[in-house]
User: Which sequence fits this backbone?
DNA sequence: AATGACTGGACAAACGGTTGCGCAAATTTA
DNA sequence: TAAATTTGCGCAACCGTTTGTCCAGTCATT
C-alpha cells in the first residue's frame, strides 16, 4: 500500500545483499539456484515491480521514442503512427507524442522538451515550412539519433524513409495521357519540398516517355491551404490551353480543387478529371472522389522508420552509415473507373 | 563533448558544493547574490541542462501523462488528442501514447507498461468491448489517477468527461419536426451503450415536447458495421409508416445509410433526410452530407479531461472527490441548409 | 595436506540531483 | 560589548538499481 517494494526490501527480508537480489532476478549464473528461487518467489509474493525511473536513470536509457509530426488529424499521419507504435511496442519501447501543427517554432520547442526528457531517439516528419534544421543538428551532440519520414529535410547525412512520388506521378500522368488527356495541370506543393520536386520530375518523365513536351506553366506551386488551391485552380483554368485533367498534391487539395471546379460550372469526370495522392479511406464517401490516387503506404513508412531507429539504438546499425529508404508510391485506380 | 555537464562539474570548477549549485540554479534565497550569479553564468556557458531522468527518479514524478484510446484514425480521437496535448504541454507535461485498437487485451497491456514507465496519470477512452475494469482498479494502489473521457466505464467512483447525447438529440429531432417530418427513424448503436440510451431518451423527450407519441419500432439498434446499418435501413424503409427522416448514430453510419437509400432509388433531402452525430470535418466533402450533425466537441473533451487530471496531480483536486463533467452536445446545421 | 580453481555472495561505488541540518561568519539587537 | 539573529554555504544522506571487485568457503587435483 504505502511504498512499492524495492530490491532492498527483498534483500533485507532474506538477509541478502541488494546486489544478490538484483542478480537473482536477472537469472545471473553466479547466483545459486536455491537463493535465486527464494528471491524470485518473494518478489512474486510482494508483487515486486522494478522502478523503471531508477533503471532509466542508471542505464541512461528511457526506452522511449519521440515522435514529432505535423497533424494527427491528417489520415496519413494517424496511419503512420500506428505503424510506429506497433513496431516500437514489439521492442518494449513507448512512444512520446508531439504535434507541431505545422509550426516551426512549436517543432523546435517539442524537440527541446523531448531532448530533456531523454528520449532514446526521434522520429520526425517536418512542419511544412521548416527550413532551418539547427534543432535537429543539435541532437547529434547528445547522441540522439533521428530518423525522418515522409516530410524530410533537404540535407545530406540524415536517416530517412520517404516515398518516392516520382514513380506514382509517372503512373498518374501516364494514366491520364492514356485516356486521351493532353493538357494536364498540376497543383503542386511548395517549391522547396522534395516531394514537390519529385512530382515535377515524374510529370516531366511521363511526358517524355510519350515524346510529349512538358509545359512548366501547367505546373503551379501552391501552399496547400484552401485559398492557395483555389488560386492555383483559377490560374490553371484560365490557362491559354484548355486543361482537361488535374493532378492534385493530395486528396485534401483535390477536394478543394473539385469544389472550385464545380462552382465554376464544370462537370467532374467530363469537363475535367482529377487524380491525386494519399488514397484516403474516406474518399469512398466523397462526392467526387479522384479517378485515381497515389498510395504512399503510411503504415509501412512508420514501421520502416521505427525499425531503422531501433537498429540504430541497438547498435546494429552504425550512426554514420546513413539509412535512406525510399518506398515506391503506386497508383490506385478508384473501383469501377 | 562526451558527457553533458553536471551540477557536480559546475561545483568543482567554482569550488562550491553541489548543493549550493543546485540551490543557486533554483534561485534559493539562502544563496548569496554573487555566487548565485557566478553559478548561473557558468551554467549558461557550459550549456548545462539538468538531467531529467535523475530528477524524475529523485522526485518520483515523470511529468508524463499516458493516453489510452481505441483508434487515432477516428477523427474524434485525433481531435481529442490535440486538446490533450495542448493542455498538457502548457503545464510542461508530455504525452505517452497507446492505441488499444479496440482490443481489451492490448488495452490491459498498455496500461501495465504505462504503469511501469511511471506515468503520473492516465487519460483513457475505453476499447469498445472492455467490460472488466481490473486493470484500471489496480492503478489505485499505485496512486496513479485516471480520468476517462468519451467512452467511459459503467461504474461509480471514477473521474470522467463525457458528452451528453441527449441534448443534441433533442435538438436534432426537434429540427426535423419543425421541418414537418412526422415519421422519424433512428439508427441507434448497441443497446447497452450509454450513448445509445441517451439518444433514445433525447428522441422521446423531443417528441414529448411537441405532444407527439414516441414509436419504439422506429428506433432500431445496430452494431455500427456497414452491414448492420444496411439491415437497419431495410427495416426502417419497410416500416408500415413512411419514414421521411433518419437520425443516424454518427457520420460514418449516416454515409452507409445514405448509400443504401440511394441504391433504393430514394432522393436524398427530398424523399428522405438525414441527421447524424460527430460533425466530421470531412463531411463538407461528402456526396450527401447530413442536413445537420451533433457536435461532440472532442477537442474540448480532451482539454477538460486533461485539466482535471492535472489538478488531481497538483493536489488542487482531491482524488476521492470524483469529477464527472458532462459536456452538452449541440446540433450544427450544415451551411446553407 | 597443500595448492588451485570454482562457487556463491557481500561490499561499495556510481548514476545526477535535492534537501535537512549544522556551522561559521557577518550583522543586528539589547 | 555580549547575545541573538541572520546570512551563506558545506556535509551527507537519499532515491532504486546495476556492476566491478573482493572475500570466504567448497571442491577437486596432485
Assistant:
Amino acid at each position: 500500500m504505502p511504498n512499492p517494494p524495492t530490491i532492498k526490501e527483498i534483500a533485507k527480508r532474506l538477509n541478502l545483499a541488494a546486489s544478490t537480489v538484483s542478480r537473482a532476478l536477472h537469472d545471473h549464473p553466479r547466483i545459486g539456484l536455491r537463493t535465486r528461487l527464494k528471491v524470485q518467489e518473494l518478489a512474486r509474493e510482494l508483487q515486486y515491480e522494478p522502478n523503471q525511473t531508477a533503471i532509466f536513470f542508471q542505464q541512461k536509457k528511457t526506452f522511449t521514442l519521440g515522435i514529432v509530426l505535423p497533424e494527427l488529424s491528417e489520415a496519413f499521419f494517424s496511419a503512420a503512427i500506428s505503424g510506429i507504435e506497433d513496431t516500437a511496442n514489439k521492442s518494449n519501447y513507448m512512444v512520446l507524442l508531439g504535434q507541431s501543427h505545422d509550426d516551426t517554432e512549436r517543432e523546435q520547442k517539442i524537440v527541446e522538451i523531448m531532448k530533456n526528457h531523454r528520449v532514446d531517439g526521434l522520429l520526425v516528419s517536418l512542419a511544412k515550412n521548416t527550413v532551418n534544421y539547427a534543432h535537429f543538428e543539435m541532437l547529434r551532440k547528445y547522441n540522439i539519433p533521428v530518423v525522418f519520414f515522409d516530410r524530410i529535410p533537404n540535407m545530406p547525412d540524415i536517416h530517412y524513409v520517404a516515398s518516392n512520388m516520382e514513380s506514382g506521378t509517372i503512373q498518374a500522368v501516364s494514366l491520364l495521357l492514356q485516356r486521351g488527356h493532353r493538357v494536364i495541370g498540376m497543383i503542386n506543393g511548395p517549391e522547396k519540398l522534395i516531394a514537390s520536386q519529385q512530382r515535377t520530375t515524374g510529370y516531366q518523365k511521363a511526358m517524355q516517355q510519350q515524346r510529349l513536351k512538358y509545359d512548366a506553366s501547367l505546373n503551379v506551386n501552391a501552399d496547400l491551404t484552401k485559398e492557395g488551391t483555389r488560386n492555383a485552380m483559377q490560374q490553371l483554368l484560365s490557362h491559354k490551353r484548355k486543361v482537361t485533367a488535374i493532378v492534385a498534391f493530395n486528396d485534401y487539395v483535390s477536394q478543394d480543387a473539385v469544389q472550385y471546379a464545380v462552382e465554376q460550372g464544370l462537370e467532374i469526370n467530363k469537363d475535367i478529371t482529377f487524380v491525386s495522392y494519399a488514397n484516403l479511406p474516406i474518399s469512398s464517401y466523397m462526392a467526387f472522389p479522384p479517378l485515381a490516387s497515389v498510395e504512399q503506404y503510411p503504415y509501412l513508412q512508420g514501421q520502416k522508420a521505427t525499425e531503422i531507429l531501433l537498429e540504430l539504438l541497438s547498435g546494429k546499425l552504425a550512426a554514420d552509415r546513413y539509412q535512406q529508404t525510399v518506398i515506391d508510391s503506386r497508383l490506385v485506380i478508384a473501383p469501377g473507373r
Observations:
- Chain B touches chain A through 46 residues (CB under 8 Å).
- Residues 177 and 210 of chain B are 9 Å apart (CA to CA).
- Chain B has a mean pLDDT of 93.
